[in-house]
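lol forgot to send this yesterday, sorry. struct tokens for the thing we talked abt
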């Protein structure tokens, strides 16, 4: 049966990138100002290639953002401000899933956001999907299964735009920790992915990396880079708790066949040395890159593996510029470039 919808890959042409100017200082304790400047640097590179729809929580915050962007020589004609109250503004997780229907028209699939089943202050963020869908005059579709509005964040999945999707069991199937949809089975999720995103083949990985307070988002460990290839993080230090986790995921990817029938190819991507906030490990990962029009922006961590990771991605994206963005301050908020951004596909 021909899928009703198609969930496009991130490397397909964008109409815009959606971002939210950092406004919740509690997300970056002690590093709020440096995180804002790191965010501005991210915007500067993206604005050279595409429109930036920038959410701001108040008019005062918009004035601050304007000053900082101008100071960094960001092309302001590429910035479209959208005034909207938000709790945090991690766009990857609170945004709609933009899909194409059978007539190739864009729609917005609205999954529910519940603060990663962890935080209580998420109700403003939960309204963003409907807010931006209405602002863009897109027909929206509420994702429901078994009469329940399905909880799903964008960082929990990744697609090649050809009917295949990556996710982790830790994030979606754990019945005791940060449970998004109590009682949902693997089959329930696959039915929902098929109905709303046109997914024909779901690839289930195991666990995510240590320090990820989303409890296993796939965009910190494994990403599609073309229709038949993924990058998968690798931790060579056998003493690291990430070593066994990532090796188990590598084993899961062996001999995987895609919806097309082709074999999935896997390229290893190094991990940076561990980073911490006090005693808490942080989810520093090169896999949290964002694929924009004409370029890929990649988090870097003042690490010896920065150059190696950038080189691997340069080989995989020969037609795009590969740009490293210093993310040591950003990851203080338990996320970096991909977590902060969301693509709006072009028609």
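and heres what i got for the seq, position by position
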């Amino acid at each position: 049966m021909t899928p009703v919808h198609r969930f496009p890959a991130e490397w397909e042409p964008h109409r815009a990138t959606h971002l939210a100017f950092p406004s919740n200082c509690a997300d970056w304790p002690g590093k709020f100002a440096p995180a804002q400047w790191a965010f501005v640097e991210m915007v500067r590179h993206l604005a050279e290639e595409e429109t930036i729809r920038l959410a701001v929580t108040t008019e005062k915050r918009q004035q601050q953002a304007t000053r900082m962007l101008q100071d960094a020589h960001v092309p302001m004609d590429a910035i479209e401000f959208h005034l909207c109250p938000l709790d945090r503004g991690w766009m990857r997780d609170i945004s709609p899933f933009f899909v194409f229907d059978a007539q190739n028209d864009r729609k917005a699939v609205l999954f529910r956001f519940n603060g990663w089943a962890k935080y209580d202050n998420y109700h403003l963020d939960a309204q963003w999907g409907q807010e931006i869908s209405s602002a863009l005059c897109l027909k929206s579709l509420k994702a429901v299964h078994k009469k329940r509005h399905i909880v799903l964040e964008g960082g929990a999945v990744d697609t090649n735009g050809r009917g295949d999707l990556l996710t982790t069991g830790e994030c979606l199937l754990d019945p005791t920790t940060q449970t998004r949809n109590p009682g949902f089975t693997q089959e329930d999720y696959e039915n929902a992915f098929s109905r709303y995103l046109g997914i024909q083949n779901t690839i289930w990985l195991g666990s995510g990396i240590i320090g990820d307070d989303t409890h296993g988002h796939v965009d910190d460990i494994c990403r599609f880079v073309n229709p038949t290839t993924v990058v998968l993080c690798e931790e060579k230090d056998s003493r690291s708790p990430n070593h066994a986790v990532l090796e188990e995921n590598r084993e899961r990817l062996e001999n995987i066949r895609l919806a097309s029938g082709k074999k999935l190819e896997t390229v290893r991507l190094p991990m940076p040395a561990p980073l911490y906030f006090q005693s808490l490990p942080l989810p520093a990962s090169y896999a949290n890159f964002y694929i924009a029009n004409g370029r890929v922006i990649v988090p870097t961590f003042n690490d010896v593996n920065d150059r190696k990771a950038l080189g691997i991605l340069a080989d995989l994206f020969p037609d795009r510029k590969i740009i490293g963005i210093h993310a040591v301050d950003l990851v203080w908020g338990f996320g970096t470039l991909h977590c902060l951004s969301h693509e709006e596909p072009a028609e």
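Residues 5-345 form a domain with the L-arginine/glycine Amidinotransferase; Chain A fold (CATH 3.75.10.10). anyway ping me if u want another try
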